[in-house]
């Protein structure tokens, strides 16, 4: 089943020096249960594309269809609902909620999207090695532990599409590899699709497909 289909997506930003055209007609697609690495040099627009797909920003032109819905047709609350349910984003900076403990962070998006399933969340906590850390707060966790919570938060909401922006970019190599193992295993078990931005050809090679962005188009 086609999960994601982006067609001719363009995006520019206003800067002090005039408009900067970042994406110039990007098309890509992803089937449920498969993974795609998005590579490209710094500034090539990888994060911009991921944010558009995640409904965190809107394209100037083009279409993004996720699980059959054209997200251009959604209003702000509709896009917010998309981000908490169908689509989950794992950021390089973890982005956990500092005032909530691990258990509440894990369940946060699932609760907001009406997808909370206590048994499934407990299973994820166990698989992610978080069961003994449930009452800790994010600042009391290592980077690797925080990223495991962020992955769990996305999967707890049963997201069909997981977007990850350099998810191991803030971790040392051994910790990053362990986090990547868990991400790939759990995404594959849940049958979600994964779109991951990475600078690392080594990490990109672990995903099913690799595409590169260059000068605003898929190279
Ligand atoms: N809100 C914004 N306003 C102005 N320019 C922006 C904005 N967001 C991104 N840009 C510019 O768009 C270009 C692409 O940025 P983007 O973050 O998508 O690149 P990237 O490929 O993810 O880079 P990196 O690998 O360094 O994270 C950059 O030149 C960046 O400065």
Automatic annotation (TrEMBL):
Q: Which positions fall inside the ABC transporter domain? A: 4-219
GO CC, one annotated term = plasma membrane
The UniProt keywords, alphabetically, are: ATP-binding, Nucleotide-binding, Transport
Q: Which GO terms describe its molecular function?
A: ATP binding; ATP hydrolysis activity; transmembrane transporter activity
Q: Does the keyword Thylakoid apply?
A: no
* Gene3D superfamilies assigned: P-loop containing nucleotide triphosphate hydrolases
Pfam families recorded: ABC_tran
According to UniProt, the name of this protein is Putative ABC transporter ATP-binding protein/MT1014
Task: Provide the species name.
Answer: Thalassobacter stenotrophicus
């Amino acid at each position: 089943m086609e999960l994601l289909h982006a067609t001719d997506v363009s995006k520019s930003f206003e800067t002090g020096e005039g408009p900067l055209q970042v994406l110039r007609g990007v098309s890509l697609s992803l089937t449920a249960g498969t993974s795609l690495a998005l590579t490209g040099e710094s500034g090539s627009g990888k994060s911009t594309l991921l944010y558009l797909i995640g409904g965190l920003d809107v394209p100037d032109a083009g279409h993004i269809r996720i699980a059959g819905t054209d997200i251009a047709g959604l209003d702000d609350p509709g896009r917010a609902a998309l981000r908490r349910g169908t689509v989950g984003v794992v950021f390089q900076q973890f982005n956990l909620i500092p005032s909530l403990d691990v258990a509440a962070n894990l369940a946060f998006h699932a609760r907001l999207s009406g997808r909370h399933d206590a048994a499934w969340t407990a299973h994820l906590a166990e698989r992610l090695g978080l069961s003994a850390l449930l009452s800790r707060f994010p600042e009391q966790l290592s980077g690797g532990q925080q990223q495991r919570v962020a992955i769990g938060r996305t999967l707890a909401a049963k997201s069909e599409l997981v977007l990850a922006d350099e998810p191991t970019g803030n971790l040392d190599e051994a910790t990053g590899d362990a986090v990547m193992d868990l991400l790939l295993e759990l995404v594959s078990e849940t049958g979600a699709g994964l779109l991951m931005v990475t600078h690392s050809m080594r990490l990109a090679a672990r995903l099913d497909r690799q595409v590169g962005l260059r000068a605003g188009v898929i190279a």
